[in-house]
Amino acid sequence: MAEKSYTYLDYAASAPLRPCAMEAWVGYHEKPHAVANANSLHTLGRSAARDLEAAHRTLARCIGCGFRPNEVILTSGGTEYNNLAVLGMAEGARRKSANRRNRVILSAIEHDSVLDVASILRSRGFEVVLAKPGRDGVVSAEEVERLADDATALVSVMAANNETGVVQPTAKVIEAAHSAGALAHVDAVQAFGRIDLDCSGADAISVAAHKIGGPLGVGALAMRTRCPFEAQALGGGQEMGRRPGTQDVAGAVAFAAAAEQVCRELPSVRPKVEALANHVYERLCAADTGIVPTTVAHVDQTRLPGMVSVMVPSMDSESLVLKLDDAGFEVSAGSACSSGSLDPSHVLSAMGIARDQALGSLRVSFDERVTPGELDAFCDALLAIVANH
Asked: pTM score, two decimals?
């Protein structure tokens, strides 16, 4: 019996590994120094360190925004670097201000790896304030300005939302944070490699390998050398002492290969992926389909190119995901909630979307490797599921 085939449309969760990343990873393991620790002083260790430094250079160039290679801190992925950035930068800013700055501003639509840090911050004596988005999913600079004052240590926002694909006005938010004397961290996990980052003034930026077709378990936090920071782990001087632990050189090399490809091809790829997403919106959100857009039914410069965010008010997300899975299509609910949760997405709730609509949210995400035919087949399947409900 032939194994069932699936069309994978959940790239925002994790994108398929790119051949260039696989080749880089395998190629590194074929080198004599692949066995060595990049922090060792012997010949093989120094050879590993050179490959690690090359990965730092490539990642710094791809992230841009004025970051230098030695300011790129390699981590195990998104949850770690967001925890590291929010906790470490808040503590560093408070220490530098002689404990005067003890407020942290997070947006209400952040990923859980940022929002779940709030309880730890409060236990350490910080006040945590949430900046709310509008119905359009945008956290405005004016909202941040309203909340920020001379007691603010850190403002952390995402460059583009992981559920709706809405691009945030990061440059203006960074300016608002700095006007209050606060540090600014940008979670660019979804945006990196998909749009040009508008974060040149940021004190730190988070990016991940597996969102762009690099390996799982590798991420990077680009942080200015001058940025006040308290290390959250101890035990070594790796990554400028900000993230101790032996580095995964093969993972870093593979991450760099994927980053170099997507950033080089971004100008030509983005319009193509936008056109694919707009075609999906046109089909799904046509009159009388029973499917509505979370924000607007089109993708432009204010949206991530390969993310379609819709709601089916008459159905719940879990049923939709399972029915689509049975039909051979892998997508996710707009919510990052655990399976079986009765709560709607915190992102959609913060946007003011009614509970009955938010409970039927779906996120479809892809890049240039998905074909128009695959997307049309997905649309056929979803439209049939909703029509027959």
From this structure: 0.94
